[in-house]
Specification:
By secondary structure, this protein is mostly helical. It has three helices and two strands; from the N terminus they run E-E-H-H-H. A two-stranded antiparallel sheet has the order 1-2.
């Protein structure tokens, strides 16, 4: 983070350049998701939704701490979802196909 002053008024502007995380910092959100899922499902008996959302919050806070702005974090999320979504849709279509086979009696 670099502070630069301007003029007599002393107005400061902050310019931050995002930095790449170290391996330990990059693994922090992954470890948080694993811990949240383990505690949430095994200890509390809750669904996986809230632990996954909490893991996303940890990832967003980590990104902000590294100097990334929210727009850039959103672009990364959209890019990640767009890469994984076709696989999810294929699995969904296979599930629908197998379900229709079971209902019609093709699969005992």
């Amino acid at each position: 983070m670099v502070l630069s002053g301007q003029g007599i008024t002393g107005s400061l502007t902050m310019s931050t350049k995002p930095r790449l995380p170290s391996l330990s910092v990059a693994l922090l959100p992954v470890a948080a998701v694993a811990i949240f899922l383990g505690l949430g499902i095994q200890v509390l008996g809750a669904a996986a939704h809230l632990p996954l959302i909490l893991g996303s919050v940890v990832a967003a806070v980590t990104g902000k701490a590294l100097g990334f702005n929210w727009k850039r974090l959103q672009e990364g999320m959209v890019r990640g979802i767009s890469v994984g979504l076709p696989s999810v849709l294929i699995l969904l279509a296979i599930g629908v196909l197998i379900g229709s086979w079971q209902v019609s009696g093709v699969v005992p």
